Structure formats: structure tokens, C-alpha cells
Amino acid sequence: MDGMIYHIDAVPVFSTAVYTPVLAPPAPQRTARAKSDSSFDSRLVAGGVTGVEITSDPIPPATRRRFDRLARKWKSETLFTSAIDDMAMNSNYQQIIGMGPVVVPLILGRLKERPDFWFWALTAITGTNPIPARDLGNIKKMRDAWLGWGRQRGYSV
Amino acid sequence: MARVGKAKRLQCVGYTIPQIKTAIRKKFPNLSPTSFKVTSCPDEDYNCIGWAAGDTKNFWWPIGGYWPPGVPRERTLDAFKQAFATKGYVECEDVRAEDGFEKIVIYARDGKPTHAARQLSASGWTSKLGTFADISHRLIGVDGDEYGARVAQMKRPKS
Question: What pTM does this model have?
Fold first, then answer.
């Protein structure tokens, strides 16, 4: 399992001190909880959130606008860096993580459009890391792992 | 990844070359307009470390990226030297061009590696700028606030 958790020990950004997940939104209209698929669940980050509740509620326009603004600023401020840890510690990126599960479909939508380093945020928010260790650094495969994860949970990506 | 050929003009989706050059110059004031050339479109597939090591398939980084097996996954100069050593590089004295060798330079800021550039000729170097474009440039061009200072140089025989 260690091979699947590539940066949890190196940079403790996933701690609940950074992001306190909200696991149970009030009275969701529809939930698509992670299946108890042992091969998948074995990859869950120890001590993290074990799944994300997905609701069919539309994303509030203000949330979408805030996400878009933060994502643009993040990209602009980190365009020239190769340091994935610096990308993740950027304040805009951290604010996106702080927005919680509501932004997961927005992040997956961005990933579908173009591979980029959204993986850290997705892991921080969901507590999950579906990327096999062998694919680290291959951004298209990393993207595909997360899009597959999203599809398994009912996101339209 | 689109490359500049003698007969081909580089065209990038979403950016014009002047836009790319302007964005780069804002961040790297040591690059004068005529002292560097954009040699690829923006591309998230690989970064400066992979580019310096000759790998455009992987984004090399010890935390969350590709990292050669057996090399500590830590953002230290020693780990970066070990990573390049897996590609045949050994430390060397200076950045002067040497017949039969290619050299790389590692940059760091506040003790943390940030960037690597690869030598092309006596005064020509190439860098991949994060998830943005590749450029050819003079070495001094990328010195500065973004990447910090040169902290090590390595060389390997040209293949």
C-alpha cells in the first residue's frame, strides 16, 4: 500500500488541519457512494476520508465563479514552476482544497479538458488516491486514473 | 509537443508565440527579447528536470512525480544529483562547454531545488519552464527570483 501513497509522508498537506472534510451533506437527493471494491478501497489513504458523498444538487454559481477565479490565479502564479509541492501549497490551490467536495466535479471537469496537477487537491479533498505508483509522473495516466475514479462514482466525466 | 524546425513555424493552441515570449519575459527579466527562443508549446507532460535528463514522457519530481527508482523522494540537492546520476551524470567543476560532454545545471532557492537547464553549445542552454514552454537561452537568462541560483553542475559523455 505504501507504493500507492506517494506524498502523504513527505508533505503533510492532507492533514485535517488544512482541510476538514464535510462527509455528510444534509439530505442529499442522490448519493453515489464508493462501492466496496476491495481493489479500489485498498488504495484509500490511511486515516483519510473514505469516500465523497455526491449529490445531484447543482453547483451554486458563486461557488463555480470562485473556483474559476482561484484556478486561474493558481495556474498563473505557478506556470513556471516544476515543483509539484509548490503548486499544491499555492494559496489559491489551498483555498480550492478548502472549498471541499463541492469542487470535485469542477476539478474533474478541468482535468478532462487538460491534464494538470489537480491530483494533490483531489486526494486532499477525497482522502483517496487512485493513481498506481508506477504511473506517477505520467500526467495523462494520472489524469485517467482520476477520471476513472470519478466515473465510478457517478460524475459525468 | 511541437518543435521548431527549420521549415516549420511553431504554432500553439491558445497562445501566440509573442504572448508566450511576453509571459516568459515578465517572469525572467534577464531574458532580453533577442536572447532566447521559444522551442516548444506549453506542455504539462514533462518539466525541466525530465527535459534536462532527456525524458519528455514524464514529469520528474520527488514529491508526486516520476522519480528514478532507488533515489530518495525528497526535495534536496543530493537527491536531485542522485536522480541525474541515474542518467549518467557526474558532478563537474564548471559550466564551460567541453568537447564530448553535455552538462546540466541545477538551480535552488532557499536550499530547495527548483530547476535544471541543459547545455546545448558553448553559450546556449535549454530549459523547460515548469508546465509552460521550452526555451533556448543564455544561462544567465533564468537566474533570478523564480529559480534562485545555480548550485551544482553535472556532466555526462555525449551519446
Answer: 0.80
